[in-house]
Amino acid sequence: MTELSPAATAAATGTTGIKTPGSTPARTPRGYTPALSAVNFGVLLALLTPVLVSMAFKVQHLSASTEEATAQLGLILGVGALFALVANPLAGRLSDRTTSRYGMRRPWILGGSIVGVGAFLLIGAANSIWVVLIGWCLVQASLNAVLAAANATLPDQVPTASRGKVSGLVGVTTPLAILGGSFLINFIGDDLLRFLIPGLIALVLAVIFVAVLKDRRLAEKPKQRFTVGQFFGSFVFNPVKHRDFGWTWLTKFFVMFGYAGIATFLPFYLTEKFHLDEQGAISTILLANLASTVGMVISSPIGGYLSDRLGKRRPFVAAAGVIMVVGLVILAFAPTVGIVILAQAVIGLGAGSFFSVDLALATQVLPSPDDTAKDLGVLNIANALPQSIAPAIAPGIIALGSATAIGGYSVWYLFGAVIALLGAVLVYRIKGVK
Question: Which UniProt keywords apply (predicted)?
């Protein structure tokens, strides 16, 4: 059989050709931006719907009390997030070394999506907490591999000057995924379908992205073998040598703690403080997420556009942190369900500003042009780690808060406000980006 040349293989497989270190594309390929947005939407829909709604009620159905459910939910989400923490940078680094004729990123995107669907089936059918835990760990590992590979295509495909706009559009997928998941769960009463349907949507959108993507590929296998040392190196960087990257990591960690880490216990907050039943809580979460989505849809594309236009990233991150602090304080002291919904709208405005420039800022402080996906994976630990630490420490903080006049969940939201404020302050330690 005649071996295809690199150019012929690229044409046959839809790849853009050989990856060269530090190369920047002249223009964004047609169809890339909507396809990247779609795959992010699908994966986030599959990941965030359980985190924000369905997992809490799945665990509650398997638990004897709300207190037991709170502890079990913290265990499942905390351990699962550790798997996300490992899988994201590891898959990113391995995709940087992938020499498949179909490209560097495609195999990870498609393979991870398929594994994720199988894991959702396991969770939906589970009759014990331990089976749910195993399934959720598989979901986090597989779908975070998809995210790592998909988002690593941004510097491969998009010129630097256009990354804020693309990042802003991708940022909109987070509130849309949250809203979409809340909408689905509002009309699905079966535990199995609550997990399986979002997983299938993620798989379909991943297939579309793989079909559209003109993936780059390596000309030859890396000369160095992937060693144990490199494996552990997938999770670290030199904060002294790459200070801007280090401050970017901390900023992202604190802001994401205030946003994603805090949101998990909203179903229990609604049922305990406002005495809502399961369907009432789900309906309220849908309205709250709708309000948050409106806020994000307003601030995210505007933030991305203004960030590119002004050539600045830091002010938008700082503003995001401050606005989220205001929203969390309102949430902590909400006297009615209506104020809870208002608080979520304010948090959405802040989160939209953050997501609009987050990825664009990150790509400007990466330590190495040769390890793009690995470095983005390390940065994405700041996404995953709050979702591990927050559920782990939440039961203790909520228990302590319950002994005060404020209340356990209110203390938890105030704690998140303080952490988010730290992120707003630390972004100005980044010196290489305006």
Answer: Membrane, Transmembrane, Transmembrane helix
